[in-house]
């Protein structure tokens, strides 16, 4: 019992801190590498390494056809669209700002669960949604952002990625997937990796040899594979089966704080007064949603 509690705490630290820093490393990597090419290398490498770990732990890699199909679906929702397209949009949006957009995930999770489960919303949930959407409006209505059509496209695509990730969270919490979290994560990453290769070829991306990457890009990808991929994503899948999807989505209001600081400190990203107000309003809304009583 104590061990399971410790694992839950460690898993939450992983999705809070490590994922908060992945915005910075993705932003660095995507400045030199095509986004789908980058994501395919990240997830294929991480996926095969996870499978090796599972095999060394003597876990069975055999899965049913239904489980395989579900790993393809969840891999697409989380990693192909939810992450691959999000990384593409980072070319046009600051990493800290992107993290704030991703913080809207609990709003989408709650709305999707309302539509799927037909449960009546609590007052805290309604307040949270109102504050959340008002915060989003303040965030994206800034003149510094709206003057760029590319930024607007990036913001729109990021919102669609958050929706994809949110639906994936609800889907995985109910889907028939391999019981072992290493095996489940490994299959999701490998399936997503192959889909991302198809996407990369479809968009005619240039495949650049690792020897031609700068050191900072090599280091960023290593971090994204080992920590952002293997450790954090396995923790994420573990938590989705142990606690509710809403609680897992609380990472959405810790990640932005870390991402904003790292983006400001390492990439000299600007953070306007309106962005500060918007983030406070938005994250307060997220707090109302995630702190409500479970029905």
What's the gyration radius in Å? 18 Å
> Care to count the β-strands?
0
Which percent range fits the helix content? over 70%
Task: List low-pLDDT spans.
Answer: none
Q: What do the pLDDT scores average to?
A: 87
Number of domains: 1
Structural class: mainly alpha
Helix and strand element order: HHHHHHHHHHHHH
Terminus-to-terminus distance:
24 Å
Strand content: under 5%
Structure annotation, total helices? 13
Largest sheet: none
Question: Can you characterise this structure?
Answer:
Helix 2 (35-56) packs antiparallel against helix 9 (181-202). The chain is globular and about 50 Å long. The chain has helices at 2-30, 35-56, 65-89, 95-102, 105-117, 123-140, 143-146, 149-174, 181-202, 215-242, 245-248, 255-267, 273-290. 78% of the residues lie in helices and 0% in strands. It is mainly α. The mean pLDDT is 87.
Write the layout of secondary structure elements.
Blueprint: H1 2-30, H2 35-56, H3 65-89, H4 95-102, H5 105-117, H6 123-140, H7 143-146, H8 149-174, H9 181-202, H10 215-242, H11 245-248, H12 255-267, H13 273-290
Short précis:
The chain has 13 helices and no strands.
């Amino acid at each position: 019992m104590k061990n399971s509690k410790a694992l839950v705490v460690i898993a939450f630290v992983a999705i809070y801190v490590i994922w908060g820093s992945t915005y910075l490393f993705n932003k660095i990597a995507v400045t030199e590498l095509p986004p789908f090419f980058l994501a395919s290398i990240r997830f294929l490498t991480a996926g095969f390494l996870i499978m090796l770990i599972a095999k060394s732990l003597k876990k069975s890699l055999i899965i049913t056809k239904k489980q395989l199909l579900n790993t393809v679906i969840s891999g697409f929702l989380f990693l192909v669209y939810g992450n691959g397209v999000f990384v593409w949009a980072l070319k046009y949006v600051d990493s800290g700002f992107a993290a704030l957009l991703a913080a809207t995930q609990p709003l989408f999770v709650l709305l999707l669960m309302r539509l799927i489960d037909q449960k009546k919303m609590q007052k805290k949930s309604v307040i949270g949604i109102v504050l959340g959407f008002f915060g989003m409006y303040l965030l994206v209505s800034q003149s510094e952002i709206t003057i760029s059509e590319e930024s607007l496209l990036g913001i729109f695509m990021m919102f669609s990625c958050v929706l994809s990730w949110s639906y994936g969270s609800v889907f995985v919490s109910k889907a028939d997937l391999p019981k072992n979290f290493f095996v489940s994560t490994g299959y999701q990453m490998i399936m997503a990796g192959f889909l991302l290769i198809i996407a990369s070829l479809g968009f005619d991306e240039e495949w650049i040899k690792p020897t031609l990457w700068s050191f900072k890009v090599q280091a960023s990808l290593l971090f994204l594979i080992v920590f952002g991929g293997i450790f954090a994503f396995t923790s994420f899948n573990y938590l989705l089966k142990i606690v509710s999807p809403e609680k897992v989505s609380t990472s959405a209001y810790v990640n932005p704080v870390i991402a904003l600081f790292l983006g400001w400190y390492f990439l000299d990203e600007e953070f306007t007064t309106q962005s500060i107000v918007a983030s406070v309003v938005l994250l307060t809304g997220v707090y109302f949603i995630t702190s409500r009583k479970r029905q």
